[in-house]
Amino acid sequence: MRKLETYKPIQARVTYKSPLKIKSDSLQKLSRDKRAIVCIFFLFIVFIIGIFSPLLAPHNPEELFYESILEAPSKEHLLGTDAIGRDVLSRLIYGVRVTLTVSLMAVTITFFIGTLIGLICAYVGGWVDNVLMRIMDILLALPSIILALAIVAVLGPSLTNAMIAVGIASIPGFARIIRGAAITIKSSGFVEASRSIGSSHSWILRRQFLPNVTGILLVYTTLFIGVAILDTAALSFIGLGAQPPTPEWGTMLSEGKNYMLDAWWLATFPGLAITIVVFAVNFLGDALRDIFDPKSSR
Amino acid sequence: MPNILVVKGLTTQFEGEKGPITVVDQIDFKVKKGEVLGLVGESGCGKSVTSLSILQLLDKNGKISGGEVFYNNVNLVSKSEKEMRGIRGKEISMIFQDPMTSLNPVLIIGKQIGEVIEEHEKVSGTVVKQKVVELLKLVGIPRAEEIYYEYPHRLSGGMKQRVMIAMAIACNPAMLIADEPTTALDVTIQAQILDLLRSLKDELDMSILLITHDLGVVAEMCDRVVVMYAGQVVETTDTRTLLRKPRHPYTVGLIQSTPHQSKGERRLKSIIGQVPTPDQFLQGCRFADRCPKAMDICHSTIPPLFELDGQTSCRCWLYDDKKEEVI
Amino acid sequence: MTTTLLEVRNLEKKFAAKSAWFKPKQYVHAVNGVNLQLAERETIGIVGESGCGKSTTGRCLLRLIEPSSGEVIFQGKDITTLSKREIKNIRKDMQMVFQDPMASMNPKLSIREILSEPLLAHKILRSEHEQLLSETMRLVGLPEEHLSRFPHEMSGGQRQRIGIARAIILRPKIVILDEPVSALDVSVQSQIINLLQDLQEELGLSYIFISHDLGVVEHIAHRVGVMYLGEMVEVAEKERLFEKPLHPYTRALISATPKTDPDEVKERIILKGEIPSPSNPPTGCKFHPRCAFTQDICKAIKPELREVEGRKVACHMV
């Protein structure tokens, strides 16, 4: 009864697009966004490096060169060697595999459980929402790395457990974001219309909620990959993640820190690798957010 | 009666993805002193943009690209933003459809109205408060002294619109632009607000430009009416003539499609098709595709506004002098 | 016209108001003892202003909102006692059209997907989908090509036609229309009203038409119920009601509706005061603070709906 429309020029134009067009529109916007292009290109190369690391690495990452221990970057060892004579470049290249697998697996855990909890909280509401969200709030009160630490402490230090821990630690933040997005959908007219038609709950969740949160899911999944890489590296750094001799960036960083003054290349290159990859992922996430979720970017 | 507001050839464009979109296209009308002029049309006809253009309150992506707006023979279009600020509220003020979003939720009512007075007049705090309470009483708010200290969310929709009206008339403007002032309100409250506007108009000797989609409101409030369709004026006449003897086929259709007009008939008369958006405006007469009387010329050439008598003008080829016998 | 299809008895809906812990719960009576009968092929209009409970009433009938008490008897069964599973079957026969067609459709789904939803929900054979889809599009006067469009590629009027199509695709018996034309332009509004009347004839539908617009209700309804603060104050045949409204509120409502006829004698009744909040309604007759004929009895005793001059009115003074 309240809304008889007056002309709103700006709104009118924004809404004249079909979702299909929005898809191609988003792609178009993405292709016009230079930082996104650079990031995607860079991450693609990192991915390729991960896949073809045996071909790309000059040496076996676990091969020991006794004659060149702690050697500075040279023609033979481009990024130098470590305290027991392993080639840093090769370890770094093999490290891509470990880092990417672990962080992607961790984010997969976050994604599925987080989305599920978020949607359930928003859709069911009431005490279910209250209980779940209070638990999430408690977990959110701890920094995700502390939470991950606690989980690894319980499960025992290993790469798999680190992965699980990192995945679980990100769930509260992720679930909260999804719940927030889904709650606005729940109060929308088309969900009520769907109920009035007699559609089942799972149908409403799948057909009415999911298509409307895909953009946000994409954005935050990307952003959480960055978090996962950092957390995994951090866990390995303190010895709770990847165990030697696995070539993992965090472990390498940790090993290198003892030689910071004598052999700067040991800590510097893994550190740089982590920084650049996380940077690229976050940049891409921000670009995606500008495209899919223009409201929150400002 | 002298004219207080004269709009001549006003054209407003908005930035679009494919170049500028003309939303208001060469609008002409006059508001006489002490008169209520109705600006009628459906959504997208450009009536609200017209009112925003008069006060230069357009968003950044919209601009006046042609025409003049004379207020007491002074052209407002050439005024700077600073000069316009002196005119808004003091000379011409405006009330909007949605009083809920036009009030600041964290300021008490009294302060919000007081600010308007302080902006335009140099008066002391106690005088301002006294004046605000008087205003609140004038717009029919009970317990004005208490309401002075209330926050907007504590008031009902009708009360908020009264507060908006109090703000608008705080500096005794000579002209009030009311953009769908009662659309968001219930019928019985709408009757109250219309009643209030009418009595304020006489009491304060204001002219009102009333923008509405509701012909019933026009019938009750307005002396003369400007009908807009697709960004253009299609008919200008006095209210009685408009409702009794509408000339433009669009106006005819609009009046006939109100349920009240087809009492006793099973089917309502209606206009076929949809209201066009600015990117769908036609080459010739913009109403041609929905018009039951469309001729060949209508599809090719935009009709000018034909002067029919001193009072009435109509943008329709049916009223071309040579074809007068057709009707 | 005589078989009763739906009967509502003493429908009540209380919403728990927000209250502090350990305090007795406060309730808002959104709907307070509404009675209704709807016959086959009949349109009953429910009019009233905001907060009168007309939309809540409509949603209670479909159990989109759970009624607090009362009976809704449809095909011999009391809907209010049915399980969630059984209610689904009822929804096949009772559908709803919403005010804002844009908001009531998922912007990410095509018209085909939107219209298929009821078919899938009620397990209609796949082989019949195409025929039902095209037939329904024809009924609401849209070309079949529009099936592949998305809601925002359509105008407001076309979207509401889709809203109606979704409601009638299962060929229900009753359609609850909640302000179906309020968001539309006047010239489009009349198209939709004509469409609703055509569909009623063709498909033998019964309508519950909820609106604040008396003009529209006067045109489309056979009988009209006027609601004020959760209660029916007057129920009558349309002609009777508009020719001679008895309840002071009905009278004020009719006189407050702007008419487009410049010569109509305007005997305007302007009500004083605001619509009271449903959380704190006046005692006795809820209309008494705004009524011009208030007596002491009105403040103390709530008037019951009773038969007066061939209609039902709840007022001590008539």
From TrEMBL, chain A:
Keywords: Cell membrane, Membrane, Transmembrane, Transmembrane helix, Transport. GO terms for cellular component: plasma membrane. The lineage of its organism: Bacteria, Bacillati, Bacillota, Bacilli, Bacillales. Its main location: membrane. GO terms for biological process: transmembrane transport. It is found in: Cell membrane. It comes from the Bacteria. Signal peptide: none annotated. Residues 96-285 form the ABC transmembrane type-1 domain. It comes from Neobacillus novalis. This is ABC transporter permease. Belongs to the binding-protein-dependent transport system permease family. It is a multi-pass membrane protein. The chain crosses the membrane at residues 36-57, 104-126, 138-156, 162-178, 216-243, 263-285.
Automatic annotation (TrEMBL), chain B:
It is found in: Cell membrane. Its main location: membrane. It is a peripheral membrane protein. Keywords: ATP-binding, Cell membrane, Membrane, Nucleotide-binding, Transport. InterPro entries: AAA+_ATPase, ABC_Ni/Peptide_Import, ABC_transporter-like_ATP-bd, ABC_transporter-like_CS, Oligopep_ABC_C, P-loop_NTPase. One of its GO terms (molecular function) is ATP binding. GO terms for biological process: peptide transport. Belongs to the ABC transporter superfamily. Pfam families: ABC_tran (PF00005), oligo_HPY (PF08352). The keyword Metal-binding does not apply. Residues 5-255 form the ABC transporter domain. This is ABC transporter ATP-binding protein. One of its GO terms (cellular component) is plasma membrane. Coiled coil: none annotated.
Automatic annotation (TrEMBL), chain C:
Residues 6-254 form the ABC transporter domain. The keyword Oxidoreductase does not apply. One of its GO terms (molecular function) is ATP hydrolysis activity. InterPro entries: AAA+_ATPase, ABC_transp_ATP-bind, ABC_transporter-like_ATP-bd, ABC_transporter-like_CS, Oligopep_ABC_C, P-loop_NTPase. GO terms for biological process: peptide transport; transmembrane transport. It holds the Pfam family ABC_tran. The keyword Methyltransferase does not apply. NCBIfam families: oligo_HPY, PRK11308.1. Belongs to the ABC transporter superfamily. PANTHER family: TRANSPORT ATP-BINDING PROTEIN (PTHR43776). This is Dipeptide ABC transporter ATP-binding protein. It comes from Neobacillus novalis.
